[in-house]
Amino acid sequence: MNEYPLTGSMEPLEFAEGTVFTERRRLYTVSAAPGVRTYGEHLLAIGDSEYREWDPRRSKLAAYLANGGKILPIKHDSRVLYLGASSGTTPSHVSDIARDGTVYCVEFAPRMFRELVVNSKPRPNMMPILADATKPSEYEFMVSGVDVVYQDVAQKNQADILADNMDKFSAKYGMVAVKARSEDVSENPKAIFKKAESRLRERGFRILDTLSLEPYEDSHEMIVVERQ
Fold first, then answer.
1. Based on the domain organization, do 109 and 222 belong to the same domain?
2. Considering 3, 5, 75, 98, which has the largest number of Cβ atoms within 10 A of its Cβ?
3. 27 vs 9, 56, 109, 124, 155, CA distance in Å?
4. Structural domain contains residue 116
5. What is the pTM of this model?
6. How many domains does the chain divide into?
């Protein structure tokens, strides 16, 4: 199972409540589906646990943590609404983190949704939903109140998409990976990020953290918010 030797100890991130680990500056989650790879990731067996390497080049949430992000509102028993789940790469790691909770995975593209369904099968806490993240009323019958909304939808009005879903499902915390080029290809990304932060404040949320995702993702910023 071990695909390269460990050279140090597996250390938990202090703020992640024992759900995310580091070793040789790599990130890991403890697999909720041992023996299963979602995107060809490395697996490490240590004692009774299997650790999955979490590649920041393939996951914006991992990029945030790799760049020094210090706020992870997703806990072991969280109910998470994941918007823009794609084929399930990052949602599978969120499934590991919220292993005693539920991850509602919303994806709009049928081809990606088919892959998401396959990748959700070995993970009972992942619920794939084929829907448009800009229309939360269309899937509210499938989602009970959530603790965290995580948004990775690359289109305009990303701050409002997050806020609309947080309001609809009474979420206390939200995270959004803002892609500047999806808002306006001609405007300075830093100006776009400031507008997104300002819009979230207008919608009644407190900014807990902001962090660039470069060099892993060009012109992206993670924004973490809390309902005031």
1. yes
2. 98
3. 12, 8, 29, 23, 28
4. yes
5. 0.94
6. 2
